[in-house]
Specification:
By secondary structure, this protein is an alpha+beta fold. The protein contains 14 helices and five strands. Strands 3-4-2-1-5 form a five-stranded mixed beta sheet. Helix 6 packs antiparallel against helix 11.
């Protein structure tokens, strides 16, 4: 499917459902397709991200992934308060990218249009690029310092993984690239190669624990994830913020997207999302699966972690300490990229 058709179907979903809700204030596209041409093919393992803006202090719980007209759409609700000023948006690396381009689907009040014009005007100014990088850096440091040794293993792994993974976002934001989620390592590899920091990419993979993984190794763990994913999707009942990621509809992202990365020679770049999905599956299993099912699926997850060099909470702390030690180097590289990037307005 071409991105243009997927967008068209997402617009129809907004008209059919979102516009009918009380408190609706507009909608826009976000995610990995922002800035892509309508003629581009929607990559394997990708969906169309739609943000619905609503009245109120707090947004509704994330609707998540849905199928509409054979299109996988991920719907997120956002409180109007989170977009209250362009300056707030400009320093948020998760929000700003969607307003660099005109991604608006619907804007009944006209506010989103005026916001987009201001954010777009200032988006590439060094001041705001650096503030967005600093926001990402703060997320890393806060996350790595707050690992809870009393939490279940799957929660500890998730906390460590996503905190460490934001290191890629510091680089992507500095280069004015989309801080994508599942493909973060593939995208950051390209940026680091472009700016001559190839060796640092290997350090990022070493922090994850997969620098020396072979294609066969990744394929093996993906096969284990497939079985775990299908079991978790079958028993899932308890709502989590990521619940729609572990469903038959979302299988194309977690499984098919990883298969495609392996097929194209990017097997190490598939590891991040394999680990993230494995941990989320085990959180679902812990709440909703019979004990026997949980026990039968644990060895494959533990084998994955062992191959990453993670056997205990102490290993996670050690890996977090390693990440903190190279934070100065990460920041130096980000600053050099901002200096060298001709699009960043000095």
């Amino acid at each position: 499917m071409r991105i243009g058709l997927a967008r068209k179907n997402a617009v129809e979903w907004v008209k059919t459902y979102a516009q009918q809700d009380e408190g609706y204030l507009g909608a826009y596209f976000s995610g990995s397709t922002v800035g892509r041409s309508d003629q581009d093919l929607l990559p394997v393992g990708s969906d169309i991200d739609v943000v619905v803006v609503r009245e109120g202090e707090l947004p509704l719980p994330k609707l998540g992934k849905i199928i509409f007209r054979n299109t996988l759409i991920e719907v997120t609700y956002l409180s109007f308060k989170q977009l209250d000023t362009p300056w707030h948006v400009l320093q948020s690396y998760h929000l700003a990218g969607s307003f660099w381009f005109n991604t608006l689907i619907d804007d009944p009040t006209g506010y989103l249009s005026s916001l987009q014009k201001l954010v777009s005007k200032h988006f590439t100014e060094r001041k705001w690029v650096q503030l967005r990088c600093e926001e990402a850096r703060n997320r890393i440091e806060t996350g790595l310092r707050s690992l809870d040794s009393t939490a279940p293993l799957y929660e500890q792994v998730t906390s460590w993984l996503f905190s460490t993974g934001v290191m890629t976002h510091v680089i992507l934001v500095a280069a004015l690239r989309n801080p994508t989620v599942r493909l973060r390592h593939l995208m950051v590899r390209k940026v680091l190669e472009e700016y001559g920091f190839d060796e640092f990419y290997e350090k990022l993979l070493a922090l994850l624990g997969c620098k020396d993984w072979t294609e066969a190794q990744v394929q093996h763990h993906l096969e284990g994830l497939e079985h775990t994913f299908d079991m978790a999707a079958t028993v899932a009942r308890t709502p989590f913020f990521f619940s729609s990621d572990i469903t038959p509809e979302a299988r194309s992202i977690a499984i098919d997207g990883s298969i495609e990365l392996i097929r194209t020679g990017n097997h190490r770049e598939a590891v991040f999302w394999i680990v993230a999905t494995y941990a989320r599956c085990h959180q679902i299993l812990a709440f909703d699966a019979p004990d026997e099912m949980q026990r039968s699926l644990e060895p494959a997850f533990h084998e994955l972690l062992a191959d990453l060099g993670l056997h205990s909470h102490g290993d996670l702390i050690h890996r977090s300490d390693e990440a903190m030690r190279i934070m100065p180097e990460l920041w130096k590289i980000a600053e050099e990229i901002m200096d060298a990037n001709p699009e960043v307005m000095k």
